[in-house]
Amino acid sequence: MRPVKRTVLVTGASSGIGRAIARRLLIQGHGVIGISRDCRRFSRPHPAFSCVELDLAKLPDIPTVAKQIQQDFPELDAVVFAAGYGQFGGLEQFSYQQIEALMTVNFTAQAYLTRALLPKLKQKSHANLVYIGSEAALKGSRNGSIYCASKFALRGFSQALRDECGKSPVRVSLVNPGMVDTAFFETLAFAPGKQSGQALLAGDVADAVVYILQAGNHCAIDEINLSPPNKVIEFKK
Ligand SMILES: NC(=O)c1ccc[n+]([C@@H]2O[C@H](COP(=O)([O-])OP(=O)(O)OC[C@H]3O[C@@H](n4cnc5c(N)ncnc54)[C@H](OP(=O)(O)O)[C@@H]3O)[C@@H](O)[C@H]2O)c1
């Protein structure tokens, strides 16, 4: 990381990938604002960490909370969008409400939050928007119709936004991990294999995000794809 101190808003900071990113940034001396639906999930206070409660499923709340964040933390100059969840199965197994909910949290909420924060970020000398996509943003796969759609949407959004922001100081990046060993799989019928090399670690994704944030403003890091070298999916009984 460059010696410049950044102030980074991290969604999904309470668990898995977002948590690893928040911890890594704090260790490096940066300020972190973490978003969670429940700030009690952050049990150990850190002087450079602040929590903001927000349920990303509640779209109308997003502009108001975003405005408050930029009032409370005018130094905010980067956002990492790591909140999201997985739901898999044949399309006919989804209720209409489940389709809407997955698209809302995994895609539409990211667009709302970006829309709300962008005008002030454009006034910075250097700002980053980093989205956590997925290998599901690159290729459709069985039982992933809605999840893949949400991540394809995020990828198209970030590509178009990168172009839109190219003449401003805002750099837009997407990180697409394969399976990462996190709580993401707790509610799913499958999980990555437990042996070394069968899943990424959340810290691997944090490494990629730190690499993006430390790059000079003259350099746009478009996308980083990461995969476990030996992808193994285990189905739970
Ligand atoms: N694990 C993988 O294999 C993998 C691979 C590729 C991409 N990804 C993507 O990486 C991101 C993070 O996944 P993870 O593996 O870190 O999962 P995780 O450990 O389950 O963490 C999910 C995070 O998302 C937040 N979140 C979920 N719903 C939310 C809502 N309605 N409002 C606000 N926050 C919400 C949770 O915060 P609270 O519960 O505290 O609100 C939590 O911090 C997701 O977008 C996922 O699609 C994961």
- Helicity, in percent? 25-40%
Strand arrangement in the largest pleated sheet: 3-2-1-4-5-6-8
Mean pLDDT value? 96
CATH architecture designation = 3-Layer(aba) Sandwich
Distance between the termini: 43 Å
CATH fold field value: Rossmann fold
Helix-strand category: alpha/beta
Please give the largest β-sheet: 7 strands, parallel
The fourth-level CATH homologous superfamily is: NAD(P)-binding Rossmann-like Domain
Order of helices and strands: EHEEHEHEHEEHEE
**CATH hierarchy class name:** Alpha Beta
Number of helices: 5
Shape: globular
Integer tally of domains = 1
Task: Provide the β-strand percentage band.
Answer: 15-25%
**Unreliable runs:** none
Rg for CA atoms: 17 Å
Heteromolecules bound: NADP nicotinamide-adenine-dinucleotide phosphate
Say how many strands there are. Answer: 9
Tell me what you see in this structure:
- By secondary structure, this protein is of the alpha/beta class.
- The chain has a single domain, classed as Rossmann fold.
- 35% of the residues lie in helices and 19% in strands.
- The protein has helices spanning 16-27, 62-72, 96-121, 145-164, 202-214, and strands at 7-11, 31-36, 49-53, 78-81, 127-132, 170-177, 190-192, 223-226, 233-235.
- The strands form 2 sheets. The protein has a 7-stranded parallel beta sheet, with helices on both faces. Strands 7-9 form a two-stranded antiparallel ribbon.
- Strand 1 (7-11), helix 1 (16-27) and strand 2 (31-36) form a beta-alpha-beta unit.
- Helix 2 runs parallel beside helix 3 (96-121).
- It is globular and about 50 Å long.
- The termini are far apart.
- The mean pLDDT is 96.
- The structure holds NADP nicotinamide-adenine-dinucleotide phosphate.
- The site of NADP nicotinamide-adenine-dinucleotide phosphate (NAP) has 27 residues, from helix 1.
